[in-house]
Specification:
By secondary structure, the chain is an alpha/beta fold. The chain has one domain. The protein has 3 helices and 7 strands, in the order H-H-E-E-E-H-E-E-E-E. It has a 7-stranded mixed beta sheet with strand order 1-4-5-6-7-3-2. The longest helix is centred in the N-terminal third of the chain and has 19 residues. About 20% of the residues are buried.
Length: about 140
């Protein structure tokens, strides 16, 4: 029953987000060099930023709508200490940004590639204590 609730919440959340985000930003130009420079400056001064390097996680799934990572213990302990962290995730094909939304919220955060859910205590939701579920933003995120 608990597993059904989790799947049901994920489906409802995905439907709400996709319907709210339908067509947003499809014609926005991507300026990767400028974005990376701004991103690095923001990450250097950000007090609630957390960097996930490839050795910190294992990719369980990665499709058109989501990415699921199994985090290693070192990453979990760091994430648990930070309220609503901005995640800089280093993938083989480049760096991606993930921001948090409240688990019952329907709005998608701006200027990110992924978003994740957090709970009332402003701590990141890790399914089963180790699984980070990231939902891709439809428009590819950063402007």
């Amino acid at each position: 029953m608990e597993r059904f609730k989790v799947v049901f919440i994920r489906v409802i959340l995905a439907i709400m987000i996709l319907s709210l985000n339908n067509g947003c930003g499809n014609n926005m130009p991507q300026k990767n060099d400028q974005v990376e420079n701004v991103l690095q400056e923001e990450m250097d001064t950000c007090s609630n930023c957390f960097v996930l390097k490839p050795q910190d996680y294992e990719i369980l799934s990665n499709d058109e709508t989501s990415c699921t990572l199994k985090l290693r213990d070192s990453a979990i302990s760091g994430l648990r200490e930070m309220p609503i962290p901005v995640l800089k995730i280093e993938f083989k094909d480049g760096t991606k940004i993930a921001k948090g939304i409240y688990i019952l919220a329907a709005a998608v955060p701006h200027d990110c590639d992924f978003f994740y859910c957090y709970e009332d205590d402003e701590r990141i939701v890790l399914w089963g204590g180790t699984i980070l579920h990231l939902i891709k933003t439809q428009h590819g995120g950063r402007r």
